[in-house]
């Protein structure tokens, strides 16, 4: 009889312990899941920024440079999708360790940066007949810092160009808030033309 009572008490104690530990265990599992997804999206955002900066550097002062940058960033963000993009900025940097100017986070600034949103990814360079749509090539979307004004001459010194990609990460479980903004900036020197 005493053994039977001890076994019931042990089972009851085990249930109480499990009830106390299970929420903590689940919280740790959800935290690991959420941070893994944040890390994946952070790497994706970083890769998109790097790919965009390489494209901007290679295209230099060609009139369709920013269009090409957006296509490259779009390719880099395939793992996330464009619905997660908050904005992309192509900006003139003063050096390799510059940061994105605050004014460029909310809109384009004349002779400094072009600010793009998701709708700009769907703007065409040319129409079906091959005519310029006026969206790019120093058109309505990239005219604040026209790509053709970028310095690519070795003798004059080439510009530094930065690409900043800002994305949003929505938490899956909602236990840690609704989400967070991820932003990555890459700055490279524009590839020089032959003088």
How would you sum up this structure, described in words?
It is a single chain. This protein is 36% helix and 18% strand. With 195 residues, it is an alpha+beta fold. It has one domain (2-189). It has a 4-stranded antiparallel beta sheet with strand order 2-1-3-4, covered by helices on one side. The relative contact order is 0.19.
Global structural class: alpha+beta
Please state the CA-atom Rg, rounded to the nearest Å: 25 Å
- From the N-terminal CA to the C-terminal CA, the straight-line distance is 99 Å
Task: Report low-confidence residues grouped into runs of 5 or more.
Answer: none
Q: Work out the strand percent.
A: 15-25%
Beta strands, count: 4
Instruction: Average the pLDDT over all residues and give the rounded result.
Output: 90
What are the SSEs and their pairings?
Elements: H1 2-59, H2 65-76, E1 85-93, E2 113-116, E3 160-170, E4 179-189
Antiparallel strand pairs: 1-2, 1-3, 3-4
